[in-house]
Amino acid sequence: MMLFFISIDSFCQTSISGNRQSIFTIQNVQFKSAGATLSGAILKPEHPHTAVVIVHGSGQEKRTIEMASRLARNGIAVLTYDKRGVGESGGVYAGPEVGTNNIDSANLNLLASDAGEAVQALLKNLQEKRLPIGLIGASQAGWIIPLAAEKNNHVRFIVLFSGPMVTTLEQLRFQFYTNGNANFWVTHNEADARAHIKNDADRYQFSAINPLKSPEKIKIPGLWLYGGKDIQVPVGLSIERLNTLKAQGKPFGYQLFPMLGHNMGSSKSPEPFDTAVKWIKGISRISKKGRKTG
């Protein structure tokens, strides 16, 4: 059973963009998930049109207030939280920094449960109960978000920056091959990468997540955003598999930014973020139209 708490130390932030004023409140929250108390914050504009939970990528990530603020300034209510075992959140963190595997099936499913409970916490805090709620995240979140959406029917859309549509083991083969080389795509091509992903021996043995299993089951809209210079996720193969799902009638879309890399959601590259916000606003309009005619 999920418990939900709201702290009293909330405050209001105002930002000026041209002649338009955007105001949102920030409210600290705690919620329970799989035996741990997770801590975060809800950022809420005066008149939100949609709401999202930000799901972490890999690493010891705390709440992402910068990204949440950018979303809130665009009329999107946001819950962002410290990953389990990080910052003010309880639980045990899993990752290579502490000698454990953070991309095996057990940990990814656990993190998906955390994201699902975050959705419930956000829903309980919203006065606008009929707002469409989505999940947004980058990198490792590409495996976690579809798992969470499959388990939680309150999730109405998903947005992924550099989200892999390959198995966790395939991703490792590619990442070991590129070896952090920023010039990898100068000296290699798509055929090289695919041959290596297909034939390379695995350095680790564990239960791999199938990236198509959950997307095949969900029926909600999804947007994947990719950078053509990514050296952590095999973008060409991911897009091919997305096209397979689209051909099956899934309401999924993607956009490729050829000159960007893996961390394309940063403020230094505003175009992917702006594309995501525009798409989310489209979800809001569709939702409002459905409520008027439903």
Notes on the structure:
It holds the Pfam family Hydrolase_4. This is Prolyl oligopeptidase family serine peptidase. It comes from Pedobacter petrophilus. The structure is a single chain. With 294 residues, this protein is an alpha/beta fold. The protein has a single domain, classed as Rossmann fold, CATH 3.40.50. Helix content is 36%, strand content 24%. It has nine helices and ten strands. It has helices spanning 65-72, 105-125, 141-151, 168-178, 184-187, 190-199, 213-217, 235-247, 270-293, and strands at residues 4-6, 11-17, 20-33, 36-45, 50-55, 76-81, 133-138, 155-161, 222-227, 252-257. Strands 1, 2, 3, 4, 5, 6, 7, 8, 9 and 10 form a ten-stranded mixed sheet that branches. β2 and β3 form a beta hairpin. α2 (105-125) packs across α3 and α4 packs across α6. The model is unreliable at 1-21 (pLDDT under 50).
